[in-house]
Design a protein that fits this description.
The structure holds two protein chains of two kinds. Chain A is of the alpha+beta class. Chain A has helices spanning 6-22, 29-53, 97-116, 124-143, 147-156, 158-168, 173-201, 216-220, 238-253, 262-269, 272-297, 299-326, 330-351, 354-385, 396-399, 401-414, 421-436, 438-463, 479-497, 500-531, and strands spanning 68-81, 85-95, 203-206, 209-213. In chain A, β1 and β2 form a beta hairpin. The model of chain A is unreliable at 528-532 (pLDDT under 50). By secondary structure, chain B is mostly helical. Chain B has a domain at 328-572. In chain B, the strands form two sheets. A two-stranded antiparallel sheet of chain B has the order 1-2. A two-stranded antiparallel sheet of chain B has the order 3-4. The chains are: A alpha+beta, B mainly alpha.
Chain lengths: 532, 572
């Protein structure tokens, strides 16, 4: 354990950066950029410290003692009134194998995004203030273990994201921004209702007094449930409602078919850096939330409904891939490929076994790095050509050789070529899913072929063939863009060859989660049938 | 000598101590009354219209005195105390039924509302002194501030009233004064029209209300709501109360109160009046007078028609009526707000929606009363007593009112500052405003976010508590009957996001174009195109902004305070 509150530092560093930025005159663009890059670079350093000190043998999940770097401070303590009971809200942060990868990913992608933000051309101060606030929200979501705190961070991202798309986005930015905002809020208000229900359900003893609490870990333990309360453990159809309420909020974020329509709009209109953040980190919050909260608190419903979740996962994979194939705009193509790739995550999660789950989490990480690269590469081209039409390019390979080499790496990583990280995670997902859902896994492998098809077809249309005259003055990728892209490419290749460091980080926790869900599921179901 | 005729001197002797104690309980109201009269005299003494603002400072002092004296009426809660220390009746009279009932009461519930109302009145006075609309009619500023004191007096009496007659008087005092204040800018045809509409609607609904009151009196033979409760309780058991007449009486009474809180279907006056009135008055109507209305309504419903503790039945199933009205009110308010182009009109509809949200808390009050009775009828109330089921709804409404006070007043204040400079309240004219004054744009943005109910603002805490109170489970059956209402409410808050965001969109995202209103000539524009505001008007924003954010992050004080208000009710 470290002697300092590393999770708070990771989460609140951007706020400190915001305060400093606020005092910088808005004309001093270099300084403003420098602060953001510095803050996110510091975050990366702290994330590496965190990684080095992380103990992979501690499980976490539902065991408070298994969490690491825990910080727990009293935030709100209201002693009893009415049914609100004694209210306890904590500033409760901690990570386990489930979240450590997401924390690392967030730090990495935030840094990359900060570098990519150099191409922003107006209102720099406002942009970087919003950007830093967004980073705080993302980091907080992955560290919070108190549902109230989690919800606060979850909602904290909405406003900066709205403005980042709405002010610095493309031509249809206002529409895309408000669509994103309303979709996400729609999901999260149901999460709020379920959160309140869970709060009434959960009661723990602190110092001989019973307190209602928002602690996610306490909510997971059926022993803390008040008998007869709305989400109490046994034989309660309300638990299905609760699970679905939470799931809706998370599914919109993933985004799961049929709630995916905000994503292509948001991606196409968002500036490059924000697309990188959106695809790299924000989408992971949906799947992370399902793993941490839905699976943790409602394990028996997760078991009962996994057969439906797998169907939605497969729809995401295949439907997303077909949509991607039909696109003429490169950014839209990648947006739909995100939908397709997040389908693999859902497929792996629904399998409810170690391989599938591990594949899902690894896929979350890999999708974060690979899609970030894809969007960065689009940004590189768009900054030069000011268009993203697939059919308007051709023969760029000779014109921009260094760029082409990087693009090939990320396209091949995206389509799951062996030797790249994407292959390992997809293989794990299929391995896991095949044990539980053979038919659906076979259907979903169609996605691999389709992904290869649209990726290679895009590559062919843009980089091979003859170069149209108007692109004769395109320049190759520059140093700043390389700084953003190369580390990601290195990670993708390294993890493709040697995934053990990542697997070791999470395997104990994943096994614990799988055991917990599978053990709690049948037990609770059985008890429910006895009660009926 | 006829023994039935009491000697007037003896009568005076009998009542002298009562009047004396009553007057001491009536101190804040007395201060306001005297202040009102003095303000009129002060207005007559001041000749120059430029000096009329002095009345404003005088009003501020009077309101501060009222605030302090109200604060002194607060009775701290003593842990473990079991005796009723809740309140003292004002102007009591004896009846055979209940030993002592009175026109009004001083208890922590009333004190809470008095504090809330005097605080918002003080903020309104300060706001008015910075308002261009009010300043332009400088000659009449004296009567403006005097009337504001009279209005505050009426609002002080509303939550304290325990008698139908007192309720009516306080409501009319508020109404009639606000008619005049709405029409304050009488050269402006909009303002006059708004005032006229307000009078017509107000007269109609108070007519309905007084008719309802008369039916209640006819049924029970008393005008005291405590008396009404007692008569109904015995009458219900004996089946001597005509249910239909009771329903008609209650629903007609609700018309008058629903009009004050602008609940559907008595909301039609709201948009026109809010649009036409000077902005400080709009803010006052939307916050203080609504708070008073809620205080009155809660006392009327809670004390007049609670449950029969013997049978565990509600004397009247009013929560259902209020629930339906709440759902209709918020849905109507939100959907109508979507299409507004004038920000004051939009906020008018949004206050209708917020009234709907607060009525959800009112439903929880009724629901909690029902649960309490159920617990008592089962007979193990001793262990469940600390749960105070009926209180959760009251606490949530009060927390919401506190949240709403800072947020909504703040929003109106910024709108007023903007209108001072650009002379327009059209959302279209807000285009690109963030560049003209970043501070104002960001503050208005935060207030709108708080109105939507997004975390880290106090608006979220208000919504959180309303949801919590309505999702309370029945302690015996574990049923949660009002989930549908909570779902209607969350869907409504998603709808509301759209129109609040539209304002932010105009300010931050859109650019000013040819159609945007040109800046009026009187204002000062800095070299970089920013509007300059006086230091005092900028600092004053923080009076709203700081509570909005601080109470959103650390809301324990508000909850503790409001909880202590209602603890007293559980001690009877």
């Amino acid at each position: 354990m470290l002697g300092f509150p590393i999770l708070s530092i990771l989460t609140l560093l951007p706020i400190a950066g915001m305060i400093i930025t606020a005092f910088v005159p808005k004309t001093n663009v270099k300084m403003i950029r420098g602060i953001t890059v510095g803050v996110t670079a510091l975050q990366v350093i702290f994330a590496i410290v965190l990684w080095a000190n992380f103990n992979g043998s501690m499980a976490g999940i539902n065991d408070p003692k298994g969490f690491q770097f825990v910080e727990k401070h009293e935030w709100i303590r209201i002693s009893g009134l009415g049914v609100f009971g004694n209210v306890a809200i904590d500033y409760f942060m901690g990570i386990d194998g489930l979240s450590v990868l997401m924390v690392l990913l967030t730090a990495l992608i935030s840094f990359v995004g900060a570098i990519a933000s150099f191409s922003i051309e107006k209102q720099h101060k406002g942009y970087f203030l919003m950007y830093l606030l967004l980073v705080t929200g993302m980091m907080g979501v992955f560290c919070a273990l108190d549902f109230f705190l989690f919800y606060v961070f979850w909602e904290l991202m909405l406003l900066p994201m709205y403005f980042l798309i709405g002010i610095w986005g493309g031509p249809r930015r206002e529409y895309a921004a408000i669509k994103f905002f309303i979709y996400t809020l729609f999901g999260s208000v149901f999460m709020l209702l379920v959160m309140i229900g869970l709060y009434f359900t959960t009661q723990v003893q602190i110092g001989g007094v019973s307190w209602h609490t928002f602690s996610i870990l306490d909510m997971m333990n059926p022993a803390n449930h008040v008998t007869g309360s709305i989400f109490a453990t046994i034989g309660n159809t309300w638990r299905y409602v609760g699970y679905l309420g939470l799931f809706l909020g998370f599914a919109i974020k993933i985004p799961m078919f049929p709630f995916h329509t905000w994503l292509p709009d948001a991606h196409v209109e968002a500036p490059t850096a924000i697309s990188v953040i959106l695809a790299g980190v924000l989408l992971k919050m949906g799947t992370y939330g399902i793993l941490r909260i839905c699976y943790g608190i409602f394990p028996e419903i997760a078991v009962a409904t996994s057969q439906y979740m797998v169907i939605f996962g497969v729809i995401n994979i295949v439907y997303g891939a077909f949509c991607a194939m039909a696109q003429k705009d490169l950014k839209k193509l990648i947006a739909y490929s995100s939908i397709s790739h997040m389908g693999y995550v859902m497929l792996g999660m629904a399998a409810l076994n170690s391989q599938g789950m591990m594949g899902a989490i690894f896929q979350m990480f890999n999708h974060g790095t690979i899609t970030a690269m894809l969007f960065l590469s689009v940004g590189v081209l768009y900054d030069r050509a000011h268009t993203r039409g697939l059919n308007e390019f051709g023969g760029l390979a000779n014109k921009m050789p260094k760029y082409f080499a990087l693009v090939v790496i990320c396209y091949f990583a995206s389509l799951g070529l062996p030797g790249m990280s994407g292959f390992i995670s997809e293989a794990f997902v299929f391995l896991g899913a095949f044990q539980t859902f053979q038919f659906w896994t076979i259907v979903s492998t169609l996605g691999i072929i389709l992904t290869a098809a649209y990726m290679l077809w895009a590559l062919q249309r843009m980089f091979l063939g003859t170069l149209p005259e108007r692109w004769n003055n395109l320049t190759d990728i520059n140093g700043r863009e390389l700084v953003a892209l190369v580390p990601l490419a290195a990670i993708v290749i390294f993890l493709g060859i040697y995934p053990a460091p990542i697997i070791n980080l999470m395997s104990t926790s994943v096994n614990q989660l799988v055991t917990f869900v599978n053990a709690a599921g049948p037990k609770v179901m059985q008890a429910a049938s006895i009660v009926r | 000598m006829n023994p039935n005729i009491i000697n007037p001197q003896e009568l005076a002797k009998l009542f002298a101590p009562l009047v004396k104690t009553s007057m001491s309980h009536f101190l804040p109201e007395t201060i306001l009354t005297v202040g009102f009269l003095l303000a009129i005299i002060l207005d007559l003494l001041i000749k120059k219209s430029s000096q009329k603002k002095l009345t404003g400072y005088f009003a501020l002092i009077v309101l501060a005195a009222a605030f302090v004296t109200s604060w002194m009426q607060w009775q701290p809660y003593v842990e473990g105390s079991t005796t009723w220390k809740g309140g003292s009746m004002i102007f009591p009279y004896m009846t055979t039924l209940i030993p002592q009932i009175g026109m009004a009461v001083v208890d922590n519930f009333a004190v809470f509302f008095k504090l809330l109302i005097s605080l918002s009145a003080m903020l309104i006075v300060l706001m008015s002194m910075l308002s261009r609309e009010v300043e332009e009619r400088g000659r009449h500023n004296g009567e403006y501030f005097a009337l504001l004191l009279a209005l505050t007096l009426g609002m002080f009496l509303m939550p304290a009233a325990t008698d139908l007659v007192m309720m009516y008087i306080s409501l009319e005092l508020v109404s009639i004064t606000s008619y005049i204040m709405v029409g304050f800018m009488k050269e402006n045809s909009r303002s006059s029209e708004a005032s006229m509409k307000y009078v017509l609607f107000g007269a109609f609904s108070s007519g309905l209300m007084i008719y309802g009151f008369s039916i209640l009196y006819g049924l029970t033979g008393t005008t005291s709501i405590v008396g009404i409760q007692a008569v109904l309780q015995s009458g219900m058991e004996a089946h001597t109360v005509n249910q239909l007449a009771l329903w008609v009486g209650v629903i007609l009474s609700l018309a008058g109160m629903g009009y004050k809180i602008s609940a559907a279907p008595f909301h039609f006056w709201t948009p026109d009046v809010y649009e036409g009135a000077p902005i400080p008055i709009t803010a006052l109507l939307s916050v203080a007078s609504k708070a008073g209305g809620f205080g009155l309504l809660m006392r009327f419903l809670m004390f007049g028609f609670p449950v029969d503790f013997q049978t565990g039945k509600l004397l009247l199933n009013w929560p259902l009526v209020v629930a339906v009205l709440a759902a209709v009110t918020m849905t109507l308010g939100n959907f109508a707000a979507l299409r507004q182009s004038n920000i004051k009109r939009m906020l008018a509809y949004s206050t209708i929606a917020h009234a709907g949200y607060m009525m959800v808390g009112l439903v929880a009050v009724g629901s909690g009363l029902f649960m309490l009775a159920e617990v008592r009828s089962v007979g193990f109330h001793k262990e469940l007593l600390p749960h105070f089921y009926e209180m959760s709804g009251m606490v949530s409404v009060m927390i919401y009112l506190v949240a709403y006070l800072f947020t909504n007043l703040g929003a109106f204040y910024v709108i007023m500052l903007i209108a001072n400079k650009i002379g327009s309240e059209e959302i279209e004219d807000y285009k690109g405003f963030a560049k003209k004054s970043p501070l104002l744009a960001v503050s208005l943005g935060i207030f709108l976010v708080s109105l939507t109910g997004i975390p880290l603002t106090v608006g979220f805490i208000g919504k959180l508590y309303i949801f919590s109170s309505i999702l309370t489970a029945d302690p015996i059956t574990h049923a949660t009957p009002w989930v549908w209402l909570a779902v209607v409410m969350v869907l409504n808050s998603v709808v509301s996001l759209y129109y609040y965001v539209r304002v932010m969109q105009a300010m931050f995202i859109k650019q000013a174009d040819a159609q945007t209103a040109p800046l009026t000539s009187a204002l000062s524009v800095g070299p970089d195109g920013t509007l300059s505001y006086s230091l005092i008007s900028k600092i004053f924003i923080f009076a709203f902004l700081v509570p909005t954010i601080v109470l959103g992050v650390y809301f324990q004080p508000v909850v503790d305070f409001t909880s202590n208000v209602v603890r007293f009710f559980s001690l009877q």
